[in-house]
Specification:
By secondary structure, this protein is an alpha+beta fold. It has helices at 39-48, 174-196, 201-211, 294-307, and strands at 25-31, 34-37, 52-64, 67-71, 74-79, 82-92, 96-100, 103-117, 126-142, 148-160, 163-166, 169-172, 214-219, 225-242, 245-260, 276-277. The longest helix has 23 residues, at 174-196. 20% of the residues are buried.
């Protein structure tokens, strides 16, 4: 330009900058929900828990208490205590899994069959049946090293207590059944925690993290615009249950840079970092104007000038 040519009376050209042009960058947070199928948990529990949970065969000194009547002002025993042998078993039905809020519920129907037998044949092998429904309520957690952890608490109640009617009284066997069910409950808790730990979230998260070091096309042409994403952290904000799907609320926070040019090179990826417990609030920052290749902007500028 003559204005920059001292020989033609112009000013001296300013020094040419040799440093790299500044690239505008900002932090964005992108939601990346991960789903895990909890159906295998049910299958593993079905295999781990036997169909027959316990059997019983024990001698009781007094299945039926002595019968007494009041005679001459005193209570007189008219029948002795009736000893018996209690035999039976408790079996379980098919497990059912469901979601309730942030808990996984495992429903386990129980069926008890108990018989009371005595030497004298007074009870005549009376058989009792009962039913109960056990619930395993599981809360899961995701440790910083991406391991799944489960905390299970078991509760159950007899919808029909096992017992027999004899001599006008109801004889129940819930104490014997409860004593046998206690270790079964502990086994269920142990199996639940063990199977929860097998859910491999880390592999899915690592693959998503690797793929996040990329460039996203914002505009195909006239001019081409790309956003390069360089992840910095991955945040965890809890989970929710949808049927048999466990949806983790994750977000990737990283630096985003905008280019008006051909596709820039992907940033170099780094290994999956530790999990950060922080509720993701997704947002995307794209700033313009940006440092652009002139050859990409020239056709746009030419068209704008031609219109004027």
């Amino acid at each position: 330009l003559s204005a920059c040519d001292p020989a033609k009376g112009g000013a001296k050209a300013p020094p040419r900058a040799t440093d790299a042009a500044p690239m505008p960058s900002q932090r964005s947070l992108i939601a990346v929900p991960i789903d895990a199928d909890i159906a295998p948990l049910k299958a593993q529990l079905e295999r781990a828990l036997p169909k027959t949970l316990w059997t019983i065969n024990q001698r009781e000194k007094a299945c039926v208490a002595p019968q007494r009547v009041k005679l001459f002002g005193k209570r007189v025993k008219v029948t002795p205590a009736i000893p018996c042998t209690i035999v039976g078993q408790v079996t379980r039905g098919a497990l059912r899994l469901r979601g309730e809020g942030n808990e996984i519920i495992v429903d386990m129907p129980l069926h008890a069959t108990v018989a009371a037998r005595d030497i004298g044949g007074v009870l005549k092998g009376e058989t009792a049946t009962g039913a109960a429904l056990a619930h395993a309520r599981i809360r899961i957690d995701l440790a910083p090293d991406w391991r799944m952890q489960g905390k299970a608490r078991i509760s159950y109640g007899w919808t029909k207590a096992p017992g027999i009617d004899f001599l006008g009284k109801r004889i129940t066997f819930t104490d014997q059944a409860d004593a046998k069910l206690a270790p079964v409950v502990r086994d269920v808790e142990r199996e639940v925690n063990r199977e929860i730990g097998k859910i491999n979230i880390r592999a899915q998260a690592a693959e998503i993290w690797r793929q996040s070091f990329t460039s996203l096309e914002l505009n195909r042409q006239n001019p081409p615009v790309w956003m390069r994403v360089t992840p910095q952290r991955i945040l965890y904000g809890g989970y929710r249950l949808n049927g048999n799907r466990l949806s983790l609320n994750l977000g990737i926070e990283g630096v985003t840079e905008t280019f008006v040019s051909e596709r820039p090179e992907n940033p170099e990826s780094v290994p999956l970092p530790k999990l950060v417990r922080e509720m993701p609030h997704p947002h995307l920052d794209i700033r313009v104007p940006v440092v652009a290749d002139y050859e990409q902007l020239q056709p746009v500028i030419d068209r704008a000038l031609a219109k004027r």
